[in-house]
Design a protein that fits this description.
Blueprint lengths: L11 E6 L4 E6 L6 E2 L10 H9 L17 H6 L5
Antiparallel strand pairs: 1-2, 2-3
Length: about 80
Amino acid sequence: MTREVGAITGDLEITYYPEQRTAIITHVGSSDQYVVEGNAPLGWSEADAVAWLSADLGADADGNAVATTFKGSDLEAQGRQR
């Protein structure tokens, strides 16, 4: 989930900024940028952030892909620690 437009799917590029613990998502070939909600846990590398945001968490009750964020409740629900 992003702050600006909610969930984003498709071919995406993820840029992670460890100092700010934030990630920016863009569609491949687009200049539009979206900030992932929340902050990654302290100490996460770019590989950690990309793996987390790229994980397939399945579908919700309506058949839509489950969105991923850095919000604490989402991390805790998936067994990741802050």
